[in-house]
Amino acid sequence: MADHDVPRRPAPGELTFTAPRRSKPPRHLADLTAAERREAVAALGLPAFRADQVSRHYFARLDADASSWSDIPAAQRDDLAKVLTPPLMTAVRELTADRGTTRKTLWRLHDGALVESVLMRYPDRVTMCVSSQAGCGMNCPFCATGQAGLTRNMSTAEIVEQVVAGARQLAAGDVPGGPGRVSNVVFMGMGEPLANYKAVVGALHRLTDKAPGGLGMSARGITVSTVGLVPRIKDLAAEGLPVTLAVSLHAPDDELRDTLVPVNTRWKISEVLDAAWQYAAATKRRVSIEYALIKDVNDQAWRADLLAKRLRGKLVHVNLIPLNPTPGSKWTASRREDEREFVRRLEAGGVAVTVRDTRGREIDGACGQLAAAE
Fold first, then answer.
1. Is the peptide bond before 325 cis (omega within 30 degrees of 0)?
2. What is the tens place of the pLDDT at every residue in 136-182?
3. How far apart are CA 177 and CA 155, in angstroms?
4. Phi-psi region for residue 186, left (φ > 0), alpha (ψ -120 to 50) or beta?
5. 3-state secondary structure of 348
6. Residue 183 shares a structural domain with residue 274
7. Residue 330 CA neighbour count, 13 Å, CB half
8. Measured between alpha carbons, how far is 312 from 362 in angstroms, rounded to an integer?
């Protein structure tokens, strides 16, 4: 077992976020280190190097069809596939937008749990937005996933499989724009990634390990989002993986954030930002502050000024998100003029800011909407 797979004991007084017990997902090669894959193959009585061959088919050739593994004896393929590449998820629905360059997929996991992933192709990159939990236990009131509650944590392999599935679509030329590759991954789908810490860190290693160990992506193209689980932010800073940290702040004052992001009652804004600045210092990576603009709730000019005051002089960038409202919700996106004034005040305060490109509104773009409808 690799160091990053060792479970971490919570510190005294620290809150833990335990998913409901469900049957375990099938063990897949993406759950295992290279050494563990070889051990699994050796247990079949087969040469250990077969594990590297299967890993190369999965990660480099994006090929899960054992019948096409021509470098492996036909008599061994089915056994290797059962042990190393069992089915993890089945596509239930796929919706497209932006002339097919945005593709949202609803997946059913082995136990019936539902999760979503989104592929977004831009002229200069392809980004996969992936889920890390089925549902979410953070209970943020403006979030469709948060209102659904937590079903369970996803396994490392289930997280990675979302990226591999997108990579297969691109490689096959199924996404307009011709064959391509996934260049960026954002952990901004369903769930709180740092509440499923062990599996998410395992997925980060599989995404960045060179083939046949993993997909060989650059850590700088990966973003991990959190509502602010301070101990886990500090743990992630010590992992030696220079991924971008995104903090879902949504308010610059504790009084409002206690309501919008309930975990703020445990770790206040000052604690969350202190941990973020420690992360930036350790990784030399700019922190992203995610801020969903909600009409008449958190979009006042004075809150923009307060946010700028908290962030000024730090290695940080603000990503303003026009809220994608969920059906029946009282929450809606800010007025355009309020959004522009918010941007103006942040810039005047010396803080870098952009407004997120809102893709996928016509395909239930807000995370959790498709699963809720199903």
1. no
2. 999 999 888 888 899 999 999 999 999 999 999 999 999 999 999 99
3. 32
4. beta
5. helix
6. yes
7. 3
8. 36
Angle at the Cα of 252 from the Cα atoms of 247 and 258, rounded to 5 degrees: 85
Which residue type does 120 have?
A: M
Q: Do the bridges between strand 114-121 and strand 126-129 make them parallel or antiparallel, or are there none, so unpaired?
A: antiparallel
Per-residue pLDDT tens digits for 88-126: 999 999 999 999 999 999 999 999 999 999 999 999 999
**Catalytic residue positions?**
116, 367
At residue 1, the pLDDT reads 37
**pTM of the entire predicted model:** 0.91
**What's the Cα-to-Cα distance from 171 to each of 112, 167, 168, 262, 305, rounded to whole Å?**
28, 6, 5, 41, 46
Summarised one tens digit per residue, pLDDT across range 214-241 is 999 999 999 999 999 999 999 999 999 9
Residue type for 264, please? N
Is residue 6 in a domain? no
Buried b (16+ CB within 10 A) or exposed e, 322-331: bbbbbeeeeb
**Residue 143 belongs to domain with CATH number:** 3.20.20.70
Indicate if 136 and 212 belong to the same structural domain. yes
